[in-house]
Each structure stands twice: as C-alpha cells, then as structure tokens.
Write a structure and sequence with these properties.
Blueprint: H1 11-16, H2 18-22, H3 29-41, H4 43-66, H5 73-88, E1 91-98, E2 103-106, E3 112-116, E4 121-128
Antiparallel strand pairs: 1-4, 2-3
Helix pairs in contact: 3-4
Length: 131
C-alpha cells in the first residue's frame, strides 16, 4: 500500500515496522519519531496502523481469556530445585596450550634462506568435579 506521496520514510518501511512499533520493540527513538511523522502525513498508513492495533488488542484479549492457567506449585518447586542444583555444581577446567611460530627469511634474490613454523593452539576441557 502506498498513498502515492513522497515521504521521508516510505510507506513500505512504515508498514513493515507496524507490528514492531505496536509491540514496543523499536528502541531507536529517531525511527519511532519518523514513523509517527509519517502516520500524521499519510491517511492510508494511519488507517492500516489503526487496524493492526485493533487486531493486536483483540488477540491480546483472546489470549488473556483463554490462557489464564497457572503452573502447579509442584512444577515451580521442581524448577527451583534444578536451578539450585545447577548453582552448586562445579566444573574443573583443563587447558592445553601449544605454540609454533612461522618465520621465513628471503635473500636479496628472492630465495628462501630459512623458515620456521610456530602455531598456537589452546583447547579447553570441562568435566564435572567429583566431590
């Protein structure tokens, strides 16, 4: 959809950002302001944004009515126990380090006189600590 007018922010960009704007997921204030200015100038986009807001509100109300269940206390307790167990689980870390260096010497005629190779390598191994 486009109103046919030239805007600083094109209609397609505003419409693509509609749901993000409604959900509050656009953090950059200059982008939010540019969309707001566009909506003031462009009746078709403003109408589409109003429609998207109504649909968003209806979906929110339907989900709120149909998803009013709460998790059983037993599930809360099990999750809390698992988190507590993870906090006290310690891990031993073993690090292996190797190094090799590359050095090439070339004479005035472009011939290789000497070369060495050095390569660095680090590996980390994690294992649960037995207590």
């Amino acid at each position: 959809m486009s109103c046919g007018e030239a805007h600083a922010t094109p209609c397609v960009e505003v419409l693509n950002a509609a749901v993000l704007l409604i959900d509050g997921e656009i953090e950059e204030t200059s982008q939010v302001r540019a969309i707001e200015v566009h909506l003031q100038e462009c009746p078709p986009c403003r109408s589409e944004m109003d429609h998207e807001r109504r649909v968003h509100q209806i979906l929110h109300e339907i989900l709120t009515r149909s998803c009013c269940e709460t998790a059983p206390q037993e599930l809360h307790d099990q999750i809390a126990e698992q988190i507590a167990a993870m906090e006290y689980q310690t891990t031993e870390i073993f690090t292996e380090f190797r190094m090799t260096e590359i050095s090439i010497q070339v004479d005035d005629f472009g011939q290789i006189e000497h070369h060495e190779i050095y390569i660095e390598s680090t590996q980390e191994f994690r294992s649960p600590r037995e207590e």
